[in-house]
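Running this now, will post back.
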Amino acid sequence: MEFQKKYKESGLSVVGVSVDEDGWKSVKPFLEAKQVNYPVVIGDWDLAGRFGITALPVTLLIDRNGKVADLHVGMVDKDAFDREIQILLKDSAAKEPAK
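Update: finished.
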């Protein structure tokens, strides 16, 4: 939620994907309790497998072209992840055509 708030104006989009077997029944109460500020969708292990995900939790950084730029299995070190986001946003901005 912190990264969504911090980098939204820079073009970062945070999307949560839940693979809970009971779907929204588990997810909705969690989202309400945590006051999640980004969209969350329900996925499944078939979808997860398309991204090479075999364990949870996992965090992906996907660039503007839809390519997985980074993948973290397990809990993410917030400071290291913040630096990775900054690098990805900087690289993306450098590749954008001038207006």
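The mean pLDDT is 87. More later if anyone needs it.
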